[in-house]
Amino acid sequence: MLYRIGRALFRCFFTLFFRMRAIGMENVPKHGAVVLCGNHTSLLDPPLLGTPLKRMVHFMAKAELFNIPVLGSVISKVGAFPVKRGGVSRDSIRLAVQLLRDGNMLGVFPEGSRNNAGGMGKKGAASLALKSGAAVVPVAIVGNYSLFRRMTIVYGKPLDLSAYAGASSEDLELATEAIMKEIRRLHRTYSKT
């Protein structure tokens, strides 16, 4: 219930202040495990990633956020779970894989942090998808959150990562690069529109 209310409020916020436009929502499976992989430039990226969709999107969030009164409780209730700074713990990975095996949707930013925007992706998203059998949907967030300027979120077609199912370090790097390449392609394509 809280998630639906928050999504409705964010939809109004993004539509009013950033002229939000969502493209390709039909590419996101309506059921089953899904990893949404998006580029990351702002603290507003996580709510923007999930706002246009009817399904709940779970996110990993910095453990410190869960210690902030009220905020920690709210983000827990809307599907976020903690990850320690400096690396993802085994507990966080296990929880993420279990959420996916239970047929949920997880939002991941393969770049890892806003400071790494445009850099080489981290292997976590590919690893989670391959371990759980989840569909991987590349997502491009286009725009810079300037007031009353268009923000576009583009959901690409699910990627076939079956060629990287060996899950070796090299396979994960190649799978991650395939994800990042498609995110960059979507971003370039829709930056021009």
Automatic annotation (TrEMBL):
Molecular function in Gene Ontology: acyltransferase activity
UniProt-listed InterPro entries: Plipid/glycerol_acylTrfase
Pfam families, per database record: Acyltransferase (PF01553)
Keywords annotated in UniProt: Acyltransferase, Transferase
CDD domains: LPLAT_AGPAT-like (cd07989)
Superkingdom of origin: Bacteria
SUPFAM superfamilies tied to this protein: Glycerol-3-phosphate (1)-acyltransferase (SSF69593)
Domain Phospholipid/glycerol acyltransferase: 34-144
PANTHER family in alphabetical order: 1-ACYL-SN-GLYCEROL-3-PHOSPHATE ACYLTRANSFERASE
Protein name: 1-acyl-sn-glycerol-3-phosphate acyltransferase
Species of origin: Paenibacillus planticolens
Lineage of producing organism: Bacteria, Bacillati, Bacillota, Bacilli, Bacillales
